[in-house]
Amino acid sequence: xxxxxxxxxxxxxxxxxxxxxxxxxxxxxxxxxxxxxxxxxxxxxxxxxxxxxxxxxxxxxxxxxxxxxxxxxxxxxxxxxxx
Length: 83
Known about the structure:
It is a single chain. The protein is α+β, with helices and mostly antiparallel strands. The chain is built from two helices and three strands; from the N terminus they run H-E-E-H-E. The radius of gyration is 11 Å and the shape is globular.
């Protein structure tokens, strides 16, 4: 996997996530979103569960994880720490 491609994926995902945060926050607060290609794929209760699902669904490693909070912290690299 190309690290510049991964960084671009993470940046696109984070931007998209920020734009939808107001809509998803009331329903998914403190959960973890799995993102790919600037779209939320699913929500999980733990970052590990989100990472496991991302690794299983996207063997190319191009995905990121974001916690649904008022002040989001970018977790994209966490999702690929095992790679």
